[in-house]
Amino acid sequence: MEINGYVMEGDFSSENAGCSLWGFCRKYEHSFFIKRFTEVTYPISDKISASILEKKRAKCEKYYNRKKQFYNLLSQCRNGNIIVVHDFFRHGSYYYAVSDRVVGENLPVKKIVTLSNEKKILLFKSILYSFAIIHSKKIIHSDIKPENILVVPTIDGYCTGKIIDFDLGFSMDCIPKEIGGDFLYYSPEIMSYSKGNSAFISTASDVFSLGLLFHLYCCGELPRMPPEYKYACECINDGKKLTLDSSIPKNIQNILKNMLIKDPKKRLSALDALLAFKGMDSDVTDTIKFTSSSISCDDFSIDDSVPSSEHEEGGRTPSKLKIRMKSSGKRVTPGSADRSADKGKTNKSSTYRDFHRPTDFD
Amino acid sequence: MNNHLEYCVDIVFCIDTTGSMGPLLDKVKKHALNFYHDLKNEMMQKGKNINCLRAKIVAFKDYLADKEDAMLVTDFYELSENSSDFDSVINGLYPSGGGDEPEDALEALAYAIKSKWTKAGDKRRHLIVVWSDASTHPLGFSSSSAFYPRNMVKDFDELTNLWDGDPEDGGCMDENAKRLLIFAPEAEYWTTIADTWDNVIHFPSSAGDGLDRLSYAEIMSQIVNSLA
Fold first, then answer.
1. Is A61 an 8 Å CB contact of chain B?
2. Does B189 sit behind a cis peptide bond, omega within 30 degrees of 0 on the bond before it?
């Protein structure tokens, strides 16, 4: 099957794709990853009226423009490890996004856990470097989880993280009414937002998710929490603490703790976390004091003179590590999503046997 | 703030229960009692926890041929470790009748879409699963039947508005929660729905074989993929 010049290699699959379909394809003797979106379908049937056709096509145009704009922004982040969409188009009724195919072994978490600390730190740095670039464009990935960071061995025996699947991502200039993602990796503020509360949405929410992910990479588990909580964001929003695994070296724990701070404005940015891991290679300046194993944000010096943009243009020489006030986020309240606690009616009789034979349609 | 995140799922099974659908019905009946357990396990393996799961059945045939048995609809059942009620309902379905090849599936779909979907949860999925081995009559084809429901949507436009329309156009689905999986032949109106409506995946099957080649594992896999 050919789609806009791309020849499919095999069928589409819906595995781990929600309501999308994905597969591999070839063009110019190069193999690509292709995704078919079904969230919006361009109507081409003659079985619906012109007025409905017009409305749906107008919706499709908005969808196409929004996605195209986002992908154009994302394309500015190309660094080899950020797998951007380089072709987005409609073919027939469906919209497709094409990106590079990541080749090589994708290490599962149980193998990542067995890497040496040195290799893990390098992996963390590669991932944080990518996110520092992404966040510098005010893009939030919003769906960080093991499936969306492919850990690929490099030829020199180390590993690098390939960032994929920006389908739930958005620009901080256009925060959606509903933010997707995996509850397991939700930041406290995303959880708050999803419950209809005002929340400070920023790239810091990705950093929280990365903190959880790195903990998983270190020891194979997410941080422990009291048994009444299923998700880290619930625990933190309730004022309780996450417990990091004691097998994780203290210097890594300290960074993770600061990636997992509840207040997004006080949380490390991706760039600062990267610099903190880099600082393990050499003496860390006295701006960050790792005084104890339980770091609180009070231990950091807050440099209010630093510009409000998270990252300076043209990069910076990491001679000093400072914690910046996160002022580039937005406090937003979700749209008019229905948050009622109405739990839909169910049949009250526990011995219901009969079907209805409806004579009316209401 | 309620400090727990909840994921609530409603599933409506639109099942063609005409004579040829014996193979599929046998599979569904065999696994009905374990459906909740199987779905929960599969979702847990993907790291997803469903807090509340409800299921509903719309069993359809042909109004002209099958009269008062053409459309059987339940309310939502809350599924749990003990799903004996749901199991009983499924086991009460028998393949019979049907008349001509197309069936009144669009009316069934209308009933499915108009379900009282849950508004609970921080994340919701409202999933309709259609199982049929036949094409569909156009809406209203069987309206001469004494058992055809009053006030049924009149045409495909109205049905499309129910699924995809804004509330002011009669739309009644949560745009972010809705999913439609169609296991049916590449025939009308299934192909039009797949090419026109949002959030639809069509898994083409062979006409008339009762979805014999569709395994329970594949059904479960596709349901899980749409919920994960």
1. no
2. yes
